[in-house]
Write a structure and sequence with these properties.
This protein is an alpha+beta fold. 29% of the residues lie in helices and 15% in strands. It is built from five helices and seven strands, in the order βββαββββαααα. The protein has a three-stranded antiparallel β-sheet with strand order 1-2-3, with helices on one face. A two-stranded antiparallel sheet has the order 4-5.
Length: 187
């Protein structure tokens, strides 16, 4: 389970997510010009480290040397054509239907891909009068590796392929039932 604080010292959001015996902490939201190779700046890293300090006892200090990796990306923000303020940028996805009936979806985040798919499919069905169409069913579709997943999968991988417990747990946690395919490749 992670932690999300919607109000940092400067009003941004910060999150902490457990990952592989480590913690991912982020995020910053800094306007920039698009470029091919975005990189986390030292200023952004220091901002996150400073915010982390607010969650620990004063005897515990997360230092720059504790940071194992930093990465950055550019999220395109779109103007919502139906918004009252045309200068406002949306951090969510926006769906627009042209006069010709073309349904366009723009913006959004990779973490909301299912909601984006649902909204886009439903907009097309509504726009083009597909009266027999059922609502988008992406919510009920399992992601790859979730089919037949069970909590003893790591034990199964240990027994079937001879993996150490730590390796089997890593494969089961990250790849689900697709871990069997990976195991076959290396055995």
């Amino acid at each position: 389970m992670g932690l999300l604080d919607p109000e940092t010292s400067d009003g941004r959001v910060i999150f902490f997510l457990p990952w592989e015996r480590y913690t991912i902490a982020g995020t910053t939201d800094t306007p920039c010009e698009p470029h091919a190779r975005p990189e986390a700046t030292e200023r952004e890293i220091q901002f996150i480290l400073g915010e982390i300090d607010n969650y620990f006892d004063c005897n515990i200090k997360v230092r720059r040397g504790d940071v194992l990796a930093a990465w950055s990306g550019i999220r395109p923000l779109v103007r919502d054509p139906s918004a009252a303020n045309s200068a406002a940028l949306s951090r969510n996805h926006v769906i627009e239907t042209s006069k010709s009936g073309l349904v366009t979806i723009a913006g959004g985040k990779w973490t909301t891909y299912r909601k984006m798919a649902e909204d886009a499919v439903d907009a097309v069905a509504t726009e083009h009068g597909f009266e027999h169409a059922t609502p988008c069913s992406t919510y009920g579709i399992l992601v790859e590796g979730a089919q037949n997943y069970h909590q003893n999968l790591s034990i199964e991988l240990c027994q079937r392929y001879g993996f150490d417990t730590e390796v089997a747990e890593h494969l089961a946690h990250n790849y689900g039932t697709q871990a069997h395919e990976l195991a076959k490749m290396v055995s």
